[in-house]
Design a protein that fits this description.
The chain has 345 residues and is α/β, with parallel strands linked by helices. It folds into 3 domains: 9-52, 434 Repressor (Amino-terminal Domain) (Orthogonal Bundle), CATH 1.10.260.40; 66-166 and 299-330, Rossmann fold (3-Layer(aba) Sandwich); 167-297 and 334-340, Response regulator (Rossmann fold), CATH 3.40.50. 41% of the residues lie in helices and 14% in strands. The protein contains 12 helices and 12 strands. A 6-stranded parallel β-sheet has the order 2-1-3-4-5-11, sandwiched between helices. A 4-stranded parallel β-sheet has the order 7-6-8-9, with helices on both faces. Helix 1 (9-16) crosses helix 2. It is elongated, with a radius of gyration of 26 Å. The protein starts with 8 loop residues before the first helix and ends in a 10-residue tail after the last strand. InterPro entries: HTH_LacI, Lambda_DNA-bd_dom_sf, Peripla_BP/Lac1_sug-bd_dom, Peripla_BP_I, RNA_pol_sigma_54. Pfam families: LacI (PF00356), Peripla_BP_1 (PF00532). This is LacI family transcriptional regulator.
Length: 345
């Protein structure tokens, strides 16, 4: 049985005895067309199950109303909440989002970027891999007149639009809290320092130590990928330190949650013997015992703010003079739970 062709505006126009352009305006509620005609067109479109050919419309308007988003890992709480904020903001403005995941691999980042450009998205938003140090591939966006915005992880140099969390302040707050709880030998598990966020969290940690007159020891900074797989080796390295640190500021909650379990398996009491503060406010942190102190990055707010910023860039993309680079910083908040609070002595 031959497949029935989809209903077009020409079919609607023929049925009603009006022009295709009138049908198009009526479907878009153009006030130039009388209310009665708009009502007739829309009723017939519903009856015949007419659906707009969005691809054809996009080609005519040079707009897809779709924004590409590239993230390292969709299954991380932070990125899930960021994407949720972006999705809600996009939907309110009639946009859809296209999501690409890199799994922290640079070649996949380039592949996702090329796919977004080929899909003719109206804008591209990127949180790069923790290994990305060369951002020249993103110059393609300018060549194709596609606005580009980096969020969370961003290039340290060059003229780029950015929406970031206050990672320096987050590192400072986490370390200050541990010091105020009486910890004096505070180690730091950081992510790969090629990534801007881990550089800033480390800088905040160092600044807090300095402000409170505590020494910084490079060997107490343990760099790893902050995954479930890399944390055991980091804990082994931590336990070999001499003198033994009495607290750890860990730059994400995934590693912090696993660190608590690994240390407890060694008979180490948290927080009495070792205090721990994580980063990102993963809901699992409330369920573990002891519950995890952490830094809330306000991922949902960051996502909505980044999407709003991108919509503004899209509005300006056809102007000859590009807007000056924008940097928006989202405040962070210390969430104090049991993993870092010592009992009064």
């Amino acid at each position: 049985m031959p497949k029935k062709n989809p209903v077009t505006i020409y079919d609607l126009a023929r049925e009603l005895g009006i022009s295709p352009s009138t049908v198009s305006r009526a479907l878009h509620d153009n006030p130039v067309i009388s209310a009665e005609v708009r009502k007739q067109v829309q009723a017939l479109a519903k009856k015949l199950k007419y659906r707009q050919n969005t691809i054809a419309a996009s080609l005519r308007m040079n707009r897809t109303h779709c924004i590409g988003i590239i993230v390292p890992r969709i299954n991380r709480h932070f990125f899930a909440t960021v994407i949720s904020g972006m999705q809600d903001e996009a939907q309110e403005h009639g946009y859809t989002i296209l999501i690409g995941q890199t799994n922290e691999r640079i070649e996949r980042e380039h592949m996702q970027l090329n796919a977004m450009i080929s899909s003719r998205v109206d804008g591209i938003m990127v949180s790069p891999t923790m290994y990305t140090t060369n951002f020249s591939a993103f110059a393609q966006c300018k060549a194709h007149h596609i606005p580009l915005l980096f969020f969370d992880r961003t290039p340290q140099h060059g003229h780029h639009h950015r929406v970031v969390g206050d990672d320096f302040q987050g590192g400072w707050l986490a370390t200050q809290h541990l010091i105020e709880q009486g910890y004096r030998r505070i180690a730091h598990f950081c992510g790969k320092l090629s990534a801007s966020i881990y550089q800033q969290r480390l800088a905040g940690y160092r600044a807090a130590l300095q402000q409170f007159g505590l020494p910084f020891h490079k060997r107490w900074v343990i760099e790893h990928e902050l995954t479930a797989e890399s944390t055991p080796q980091a804990i082994e390295k931590f336990l070999r330190l001499d003198p033994q640190p009495d607290a750890i500021f860990i730059a994400n909650d995934t590693s912090a949650l696993h660190s608590i379990k690994l240390l407890q398996a060694r008979g180490i009491r948290i927080p009495d013997e070792i205090g721990i503060v994580g980063y990102s406010n993963d809901p699992a942190g409330e369920l573990i015992s002891p519950s995890l102190s952490t830094i809330d990055q306000k991922g949902y707010l960051l996502g909505r703010t980044a999407l709003q910023t991108m919509l503004d860039l899209i509005k300006h993309r056809d102007r000859k003079r590009a807007p000056s680079p924008i940097t928006i910083t989202i405040p962070v908040e210390l969430i104090v739970r049991n993993s870092s609070v010592r009992q009064a002595r």
